[in-house]
């Protein structure tokens, strides 16, 4: 049994709304074998991983997996559960798993949930799967498995690559508010919100945090000068560069003093309450080891406190105690430290609520000052401090005192934050009692430090007292209550008409001055300008638009390939538009039937916000039926059907129930709400519709109007937008007509039976005479779909020029031309087939076999070569109206 490959879906997907990894597993020699073929296997497995006994499996209750193994289940299913259990053992918070047949005997896809903020490219998932495979195969016989060391290494990797405590709390607080959150790579950097509401945070630092404030807070002497100049209480201090200067400063200030790095952090190399010149000199050497400078300042008696200011509000306060242990009369200090470190709340760095205790040089020196050593045995109840400074980063603990903060202290801290210029500020104070008025005596109160990007864990999970949701306070500062951090999102999918509909909707939304971000198969556009040229109909391009701070609304073409390979690039669209679902892309990405396509494209309908709008094509039964899917109904959407006529059965039923629909009535695009009718504009006025004769363009216009109206666009602006949607500028390559040698040439991207039938109908309705088709088709479709599409060409055209695109998409030269010809002759034995070598040859032959005035339909794979050729040949665009 081995892992073939992994595929990561980073957004909502057809399985769940959270990220998953899809692992293709080859069972190898275990193909066809089940758990009951190996006596004792289940017992050995559960003995090695006792947590498996609680797995529900499909039974929906604890013990479901055990029952399945007792009956006999395949080893792909077992490996799925073992991977989930190993994930739980290293602290990965995941619970969803599913195993599905991958179409070949012995091959299965394991769909496994991923933590939402886990870096996409981490090797952790693959390593967990590899360990699960070794565990399962190792227990098939009487063998044993030992995975403790490997699992510990994986746990360390997971902890190292997870968000820090502060950043994770901010992400959780934003999600509780419904604000979109995206982690940037493996950093503690978050992008919040969409479009013009996008903000960034890095731990407790935001894109509103002043760079000058950060620099000032990082220089302790500069902070001291700023605060002193504002009349705020700070201890007297001197910057020194030598041990001799440190001792001189000590003598000038007077004992006791504090020595600390000038730009230090996290309490490292801070020496407190020094009373001896030799101690001061030694402390200087430790404190200046990296920067060469240190700060000697007067010691302020009292208790250590950290006050958190967000904006102009004090939102939390904690009293800090130094790292310490309590004796039991039997254990050494070293033993007590080891016992304290077994607390799962303690970890390395800032990844857990508490930091592990250590017995380094600083701790040993502090113990020596108390007449103790690591092997000393304290008396029962004796509290032994390991450090003098109270800092969580060095093992200290916190006690919440928010409710006790005196108004004097509140005012002091607000002035401190304002003076330094920080929007989020951690202020270290020493004072006798935070609940008492500030004493008038100089030296009774001191602002010891001001911290930019302060740690939040002492407030989120204090050792004593009430936790404070300070992350929510920061999020509320960025996004005042009542705001969502979102911009309107319209997601468009379907088989045909996606790109045109996307372009139409974007143009309509721009009519009232919105700056629209748009993704299409030819690129990403912002404000009508191409900013990224590519096939941009997947999640990466959607994320690109939603990260643009200038975007007021997003219209996203959401194609099958992106959904299958990466999931959606957004969550909770406001409007979902489904144009139609018909034969296309069959044989690609394990999509074999139209029903498979329905399951994939339905995700766009299912992932809308609660109460959002769902625009469905009532003329296509598969699309219309999506309104009845359980996951769609759970969203309670406002359904807006569109159809070419009001007598479409779903429209009639919907209107009788008081619903909203769009159709053509009395020659006009019409909005209906129950019995009420409101014409929008004459169908003949829709730009690019050939005076209303292009029925598929009218269908796209109805869908676009429905989406724009769902977002509150006035009907008159919708009408103006549809009139001015010039296809040559705004929808190139879709039904655009050129005139060359007295012949109209219709350039279109039709590449499946339904699309070809639509443009074939268009040429007959507009020119009312036979025409010529010059065609090529995508090589990545299955043979049967290529042949069916060619049959559709033959039903509309008796003369067909066949050429192959330069990009054969894996086909052999001549293979596609052969399939197309086969389909043409099959549907119309008398068809005249004219082989061509390339695009230029095909256009020349089409001109030669056509008569003046006869239309030529030119189907293409890539638009730019077509436009370059037509320009070189002197084609006129746009021609006179036919």
UniProtKB/TrEMBL annotation:
Domain (ATP-grasp) ranges: 224-479
Reactions catalysed according to its record: [L-4-(L-arginin-2-N-yl)aspartate](n)-L-aspartate + L-arginine + ATP = [L-4-(L-arginin-2-N-yl)aspartate](n+1) + ADP + phosphate + H(+); [L-4-(L-arginin-2-N-yl)aspartate](n) + L-aspartate + ATP = [L-4-(L-arginin-2-N-yl)aspartate](n)-L-aspartate + ADP + phosphate + H(+)
The enzyme's E.C. designation: 6.3.2.29, 6.3.2.30
Classification via InterPro entries: ATP-grasp, ATP-grasp_RimK-type, Cya_phycin_syn, Cyanophycin_syn_N, Folylpolyglutamate_synth_CS, Mur-like_cat_sf, Mur_ligase_C, Mur_ligase_C_dom_sf
SUPFAM superfamilies assigned: Glutathione synthetase ATP-binding domain-like, MurD-like peptide ligases, catalytic domain, MurD-like peptide ligases, peptide-binding domain
Keywords: ATP-binding, Ligase, Nucleotide-binding
Domain of life (superkingdom): Bacteria
Gene3D superfamilies on file: ATP-grasp fold, B domain, Mur ligase, C-terminal domain, Mur-like, catalytic domain
Ligase as UniProt keyword: yes
Function: Catalyzes the ATP-dependent polymerization of arginine and aspartate to multi-L-arginyl-poly-L-aspartic acid (cyanophycin; a water-insoluble reserve polymer).
The protein's assembly and partners: Homodimer.
Family under the similarity heading: In the C-terminal section; belongs to the MurCDEF family.
Protein name: Cyanophycin synthetase
Lineage start: Bacteria, Bacillati, Actinomycetota, Actinomycetes, Streptosporangiales
Gene encoding the protein: cphA
């Amino acid at each position: 049994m081995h892992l073939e490959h992994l595929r990561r879906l980073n957004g909502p997907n057809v399985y769940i709304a959270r990220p998953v990894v899809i692992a293709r597993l080859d069972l190898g020699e275990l193909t066809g074998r089940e758990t009951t073929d190996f006596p004792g296997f289940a017992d050995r497995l559960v003995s090695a991983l006792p947590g498996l006994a609680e797995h529900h499996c499909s039974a929906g209750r604890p013990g479901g997996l055990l029952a399945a193994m007792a009956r006999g289940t395949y080893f792909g299913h077992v490996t799925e559960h073992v991977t989930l259990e190993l994930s739980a053992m290293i602290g990965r918070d995941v619970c969803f798993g599913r195993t599905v047949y991958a179409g070949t005997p012995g091959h299965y896809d394991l769909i496994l949930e991923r933590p939402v903020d886990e870096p996409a490219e981490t090797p952790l998932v693959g390593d967990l799967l590899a360990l699960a495979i070794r565990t399962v195969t190792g227990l098939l016989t009487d063998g044993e498995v030992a995975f403790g060391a490997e699992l510990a290494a994986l746990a360390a990797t997971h902890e190292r690559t997870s968000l820090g405590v502060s950043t994770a709390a901010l992400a959780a607080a934003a999600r509780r508010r419904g604000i979109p959150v995206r982690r940037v790579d493996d950093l503690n950097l978050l992008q919040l919100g969409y479009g013009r509401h996008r903000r960034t945070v890095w731990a407790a630092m935001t894109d509103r945090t002043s760079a000058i404030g950060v620099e000032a807070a990082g220089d302790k002497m500069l902070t001291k000068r700023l605060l002193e100049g504002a009349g705020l209480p700070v201890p007297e201090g001197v910057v020194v560069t030598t041990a001799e200067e440190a001792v001189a400063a000590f003598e000038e200030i007077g004992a006791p003093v504090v020595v600390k790095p000038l730009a230090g952090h996290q309490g490292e190399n801070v020496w407190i309450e020094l009373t001896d010149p030799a101690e001061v000199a030694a402390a200087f050497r430790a404190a200046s080891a990296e920067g060469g400078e240190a700060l000697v300042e007067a010691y302020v008696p009292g208790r250590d406190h950290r006050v958190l200011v967000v904006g102009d509000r004090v939102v939390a306060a904690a009293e800090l105690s130094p790292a310490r242990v309590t004796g039991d009369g039997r254990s050494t200090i070293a033993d007590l430290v080891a016992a304290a470190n077994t607390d799962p709340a303690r970890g390395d760095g800032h990844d857990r609520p508490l930091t592990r205790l250590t017995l380094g040089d600083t701790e040993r020196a502090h113990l020596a000052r108390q007449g103790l050593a690591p092997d000393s045995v304290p008396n029962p109840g004796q509290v032994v401090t390991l450090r003098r400074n109270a800092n969580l980063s060095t093992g200290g603990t916190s006690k919440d005192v928010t409710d006790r903060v005196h108004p004097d202290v509140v005012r002091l801290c607000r002035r401190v934050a304002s003076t330094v210029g920080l929007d989020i500020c951690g202020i270290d104070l020493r004072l006798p009692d935070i609940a008492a008025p500030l004493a008038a005596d100089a030296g009774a109160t001191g602002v010891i430090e001001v911290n930019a990007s302060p740690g939040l864990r002492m407030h989120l999970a204090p050792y004593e007292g009430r936790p404070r949701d300070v992350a929510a306070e920061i999020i509320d500062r960025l996004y005042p209550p009542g705001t969502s951090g979102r911009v309107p999102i319209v997601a468009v999918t379907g088989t045909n008409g996606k790109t045109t509909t996307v372009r139409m909707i974007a143009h309509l939304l721009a009519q009232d001055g919105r700056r629209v971000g748009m993704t299409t198969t030819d690129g990403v556009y912002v404000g009508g300008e191409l900013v990224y040229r590519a096939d941009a109909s997947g999640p990466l391009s959607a994320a690109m638009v939603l990260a643009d701070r200038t975007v007021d609304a997003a219209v996203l073409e959401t194609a099958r390939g992106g959904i299958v390979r990466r999931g959606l690039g957004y969550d909770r669209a406001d409007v979902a538009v489904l144009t139609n679902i018909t034969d296309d892309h069959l044989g690609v990405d394990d999509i074999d039937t139209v029903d498979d396509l329905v399951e994939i494209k339905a995700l766009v309908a299912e992932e809308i916000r609660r109460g959002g709008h769902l625009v469905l094509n009532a003329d296509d039964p598969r699309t219309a039926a999506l309104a009845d899917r359980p996951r769609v109904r759970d969203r309670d959407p406002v359904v807006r059907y569109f159809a070419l006529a009001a007598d479409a059965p779903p429209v009639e039923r919907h209107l009788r129930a008081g619903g909203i629909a769009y159709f053509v009535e009395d020659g006009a695009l019409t909005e209906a709400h129950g019995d009420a009718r409101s014409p929008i504009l004459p169908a003949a006025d829709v730009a690019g519709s050939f005076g209303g004769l292009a029925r598929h363009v009218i269908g796209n216009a109805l869908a676009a109007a429905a989406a724009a109206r769902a977002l509150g666009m006035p009907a008159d602006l919708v009408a103006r937008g549809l009139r001015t949607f010039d296809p040559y500028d705004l929808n190139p390559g879709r039904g655009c007509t050129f005139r060359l040698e007295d012949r109209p040439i219709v350039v279109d991207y039709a590449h499946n039976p339904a699309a070809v039938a639509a443009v074939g109908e268009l040429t007959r309705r507009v020119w009312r005479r036979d025409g010529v088709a010059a065609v090529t088709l995508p090589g990545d479709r299955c043979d049967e779909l290529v042949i069916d599409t060619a049959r559709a060409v033959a039903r509309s055209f008796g003369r067909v020029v066949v050429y192959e695109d330069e990009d054969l998409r894996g086909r052999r030269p001549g293979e596609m031309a052969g399939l197309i010809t086969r389909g043409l002759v099959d549907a119309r034995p008398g068809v005249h087939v004219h082989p061509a070598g390339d695009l230029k040859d095909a256009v020349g032959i089409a001109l030669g076999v056509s008569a003046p005035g006869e239309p030529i339909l030119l189907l293409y794979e890539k638009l730019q070569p077509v436009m370059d050729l037509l320009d070189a040949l002197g084609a006129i665009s746009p021609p006179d109206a036919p």
